[in-house]
Amino acid sequence: MKHLWNSLNIALSMYSRLPAAQCDWSEENTKYVMCFFPLIGAVIGALCFGWDALAGCLGLHAPLRNVALVLIPLAVSGGIHLDGLLDAADAMSSWRPREKRLEILKDSHAGAFAVIACAAYFFLLYGTLDMVTGELVQVYAFTFIVSRSLSAVSVVSFPKASAEGTVAGFSKNAQTRATQVTSAVYLLVCAAAMFILQPVSAAAALAGAALTFLWYHHMAMKHFGGINGDLAGCFLSVCELAMPLAIVTADVVTKALA
C-alpha cells in the first residue's frame, strides 16, 4: 500500500501542479505511476465541468468562459505536455535525419515552428471549445482521462526512442500488465459514461482519440524510432484537441441531418 501511495504522489508531482507528498523516486515507488496518471485527467475534467456550470450560473460572456477552459488543463498540468508538442513541432519541421530530430527534442529553446504551433493550437482549441456547450461539456470532461489512459498505455507498450529519459525510466520500472489493465478499466468506464450521456458525441470523441493514437504510433516509429517524454506530451496535447473537435463536428453534422 505504501508503494501505491508513493506512486500516486510521484504521478501528481511529475505530471501536475496538484499538492503531493514528497517521496523517494525509487524503483519500487515508480512501479505504478502510470496507473495513477489518468486521475489527473479526472481532476481537470471535473474543474472544466465545474467552471462551465459556474460560468453559466453567473452569466459570464463566452470569451471569459472559453479562455478559462483553455487555461485550466494548462494550469493543472503545468504545461509539461504542451512543451512536448512544441518540441515535436520543431523537430518534425526540421526535416532532418532521425538523430538530429532527437537532438532537437532535447533542446530547451523554442524555435519558430514551436511558436507557430503554439499559436495555432490555442486558436483552434479556443474556437472549438466555444462550440462545446450544454450537454457536450459532460462528454468533454471525460476526454482528459481518455487521453492520459492512452498515453499511459503507450509509455509501457511502445518502443522507446532512447534508453534515457523519464519515459524510458518509468517504462523500465513500471508494472506493465497492471498499467495496461488499469488503463483499460479507465477507458471502459469513461466510454460507458460518455455513451450514456451522449452516444453520438461519445463515439466521435473516442474515434478521434483512436485515430490520434494510431497517428502517434506511426509518427513516433517512422520519424524517431520510438517514443519519449516529448512525443508522449505531443500526443496528449493533440488528442485533447482532436476529441473536442470530433465532438463538435459530430454535433454539427447531427443537427444538420435532423
Oligomeric composition of the shown chains:
single chain
User: What is the average of the pLDDT values?
Assistant: 89
**Main sheet summary:** none
Hey, roughly how much beta strand do the residues contain? under 5%
Count of distinct strands: 0
Distance between the termini: 52 Å
> What is the share of helical residues?
over 70%
Radius of gyration: 18 Å
Please state the structural category.
mainly alpha
Order of H and E elements:
HHHHHHHHHHHH
Q: Which word captures the global form?
A: globular
**Low-pLDDT sequence parts:** none
The count of domains is 1
Number of DSSP helices? 12
Report on this model:
79% of the residues lie in helices and 0% in strands. The chain has 258 residues and is mainly alpha-helical. It has one domain. The N and C termini lie far apart (52 Å). The model has no long low-confidence stretch (mean pLDDT 89).
Itemize the secondary structure elements and their pairings.
Blueprint: H1 2-15, H2 33-58, H3 62-77, H4 80-94, H5 98-106, H6 112-129, H7 136-140, H8 143-157, H9 166-173, H10 176-197, H11 199-224, H12 229-257
